[in-house]
Amino acid sequence: MNVMKRGRKPKLAVWKFASCDGCQLSLLDCEDELLTIADAVEIAYFVEASRSISRGPYDLSLVEGSITTPHDAERIRRVRRVSRFLVTIGACATAGGIQALRNFRDVSEFTARVYAHPEYIDTLATSTAIADHVAVDFELRGCPINKHQLVELIGAYLCGRKPDIPGHSVCTECKRAGAVCVTVARGTPCLGPVTHAGCGALCPRYDRGCYGCYGPMDSPNVPSLQTWWQDRLAVSESDLIRAYRSFNAGAVAFQAGVARKGRADGGGADTDPRDAALDSSTRRDRIS
Amino acid sequence: MQVFDLSALDRLVQVLGERGYLVIGPVLRDGAIVYDEITSSRDLPIGWTDLQEGGSYRLHKRADQARFGYVVGPHSWKRYLFPPEVRLWQLRRSRDGYLGSRQSSGQTGDNGQLDAISPATQGDLSPPRQAFIGVRSCELHAIHIQDRVFGAGNGARGAARGTPNWHDPVYARRRHDAFLVSVQCTQAGGTCFCTSMGTGPKAESGFDLALTEVIDGKEHYFAVEAGSDRGREVLEEVPHRAATDTEAEAAARAVARSVDQMDSGVRGRTMETAGIKELLYRNQEHPRWDEVAQRCLACANCTMVCPTCFCSNVEDKSDITGEHAERWRRWDSCFHRDFSYLHGGSVRPSTRARYRQWMTHKLASWIDQFGTSGCVGCGRCITWCPVGIDITEEVAAIRASDAQHREGEKSG
């Protein structure tokens, strides 16, 4: 379906759920392309950019953020109803984000420690991806997303073609760029082999291991990489868990690996080094 | 056989530059020896070597000042002949709405389809002439294997036997112009097995010049052979003299050392290749494929570093306005799930299927397709696999239980 031939500009909406705004900021960050985008679509709902709001339905909805409250869970259904093509953008929307760390803990314990009046907090026990609640037409990965991929996605949508956004590992991006593998040449633990491409292998090209910002690639083998890290790179149990529990902690493939290891060694979630940080009173003092 | 000294090696780099070649050679970068542009022999990894094992590569200082005292790194010459990303063409929409048709693109001329191709694309098809310094014997074989894949013997140079009747213009142009300075291996790498594949360590032909680095006490020189007319022409501009018998023997001994290392198992590996095509064809359901799939990450590193793997994808892109479109070719891999995507899904959804496809193609069906094995025994897929999967071990495992299986059938 070529939406450009319909005679009117497609309506673009940008929705925010639990998130830092960084991904929708990527749209404003398009700079050179932004005016072209504004020319090609009607920016109908984008409250970070404009107070001017047009009524739906919307042709293309970009959804940022995860579902963390009962209100979110209800609102995303409404967003789905008014959206023809719904694209989730960023690790929060596609995997629950960094806030999905709550999924491994008792959220009432957090609210009790953080808020003076936790009884006012109406939150879900978990932070979950948009696709766990409604049908999603395309997921754009990353923490944050890559603006070039966003432009590609919008361009592809406008032409009615499939976006050129492959689901293979970061390793392919490294190798095409001629970067030297940091794991093989230096022994640096790198999540690249199990991580979805899209960043252009940013970290390995600067001599660091991949942090997994884009979440699991299309066929990740987390257990095998974990075994190698522990047996050959001497990565500790706690570092291993930390590596997988970041922006994409809620992604099933990343969770599965950590859980498996945790069970096998009788440790896992219970030996999370972050416990120490959470137990100290300094954090609460700083907030209050 | 001729010889020249260290200063002549530098002169060789200069001569190639003066003749208009972009000179590419081994350089130290990011903890490895990679191939990049060089302007002097001082850019070479002087006094460095590499220690390689499955999933591990480390640089070490040598006791001497060898210029080519390493084996092969993560790069292969493939990236300079078959670039990782090439824009095949780009188009602009004309006033009557057609992309690049003869009628619609009157602004740029009347050349049929060609008038849609931009000058930038012509740049991709007219690369600088390249000279490669330090091409190993296994790499020469890999280039000859890719020549068949891309039909490089056709067109510009006339059809070679066994090559298809078409040629890939991106590859063929680069290949036609490339000046190859081979370097004989005087030591085996940790994951090398060229002696098993019949691809080395001594480069016998296919080069313009071949050097053997000899370091013998205070002596440090290169034995030189010219393998082509243009090789002889270039050599004429570099100070050299005929090798003495002693020098020629020393060069031969240096190459023999790497053979001994691989054959004795001191360094490097071996792969039994007898009947390997039939072995793999009759073991398509071998349990080893399940076992290796447990370890394989399907990350595609092996195919990216392989000097013969040639798979690519072609993607069309359009911009936001829909006025401008481009077609790009990029390195792809049979390990990518979407590589075998047909209507309705991937033909090889499991890692087991993808690993089996890769190894069976490389070692067996390649022979049916192109008349040679697709493996040159360079060992890159072993070293650069992030979990150290070893193709020689996988073949040995299948062979071991293939034999048992047949013995079991006989006794039962």
**Total count of helical runs of at least 4 residues of chain A:** 14
Spans of chain A of at least 5 consecutive residues whose pLDDT stays below 50 are 262-288
Beta strands of chain A, count: 5
Specify the structural class of chain A. alpha/beta
CATH topology of the largest domain in chain A: Rossmann fold
**Poorly predicted residue ranges of chain B:** 101-123, 155-159
Structure description:
The complex is a heterodimer of chains A (288) and B (412). Chain A has 14 helices and five strands. Chain A has helices spanning 22-28, 34-40, 70-81, 91-95, 107-114, 147-159, 170-177, 182-186, 202-205, 222-232, 237-244, 252-265, 274-279, 282-287, and strands at residues 11-16, 42-45, 58-64, 83-89, 138-140. By secondary structure, chain A is an alpha/beta fold. Chain A folds into two domains: 3-159, NADH:ubiquinone oxidoreductase-like, 20kDa subunit (Rossmann fold, 3-Layer(aba) Sandwich), CATH 3.40.50; 170-266, no CATH class. In chain A, 40% of the residues lie in helices and 9% in strands. In chain A, strands 2-1-3-4-5 form a five-stranded parallel sheet, sandwiched between helices. Chain B folds into two domains: 2-84 and 125-264, no CATH class; 276-311 and 333-411, no CATH class. In chain B, the strands form four sheets. Chain B has an eight-stranded mixed sheet with strand order 3-2-7-8-9-10-1-11, sandwiched between helices. Chain B has a three-stranded antiparallel sheet with strand order 6-13-12. Chain B has 412 residues and is an alpha+beta fold. Chain B has helices at 6-18, 78-81, 119-125, 137-150, 169-177, 194-197, 229-236, 245-264, 276-281, 288-295, 301-305, 351-370, 380-383, 391-411; strands at 2-5, 22-29, 32-37, 48-53, 56-61, 85-92, 130-135, 179-183, 209-216, 219-226, 241-242, 312-318, 324-331, 341-342, 345-346. In chain B, helix 10 packs across helix 12 (351-370). Residues 101-123 and 155-159 of chain B have low confidence and may be disordered. In chain B, a hairpin with a 5-residue loop joins strand 12 and strand 13. The relative contact order of chain B is 0.15. Chain B has 14 helices and 15 strands. The chains are: A alpha/beta (288), B alpha+beta (412). Chains A and B meet through helix 2, helix 6, helix 7, helix 8 and helix 10 of A and strand 5, helix 11 and strand 12 of B.
